[in-house]
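Q: How would the structure tokens look for this protein?
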Amino acid sequence: MLSKIVVFSGLLAVVLCAAEEPVAIVAQESDIQPDGAFQWSYESADGTKQEQSASVKQVGEVNNAIKMYGKILVISGLMAFVYSAALPENKEPVPIVAQESDIQPDGSFKWSFESGDGTKLEQSGAPKQAENGTIEALQGSVSWTDPEGGLHSLTYTADENGFQPQGSDVPVAPEVPAAIARALEYIAAHPPAKEEK
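A: Here is the predicted structure in token form.
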């Protein structure tokens, strides 16, 4: 098992070192429970997704838990080393200055983070009953500064009505020309007669 982890870490190092620029993390979540269970995931701008979760099982001696934590520590250390080796030396990584994550037993959650460059993301959600069963109703926001110094922000909800973003960067459909609006009003007021068969 350890040899597979070493081989995987080596391959991951080769892939990450081949990148010329660091890839931005666009989504990130982590949760560590008091009983030792944990879950984390991230998604990068190039579409790479990674997630992991585990819980402690008492299968005999306490040494089993210590061995598991040791393996997790070694794997996490290897992953951190591999990722840090892939960063170009001339570009400083953007630090995470604030991060929060809370997952409740009822399925509701809230997470947020802020990076050193001013990027802020937050999202919360809770199960909601809908016509087709239970869905996760979400709301959130994101804000960032582009390389030219322009501030951008977006708020959104996602529920049984779909994803609904709001913000100055969301494209707006052009106004319907007056002649077409009048034609649509006329058609609505004078529906065509139904043909008999």
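Residues 62-86 form the longest helix (25 residues).

The chain has three helices and nine strands.

Upvote if useful.
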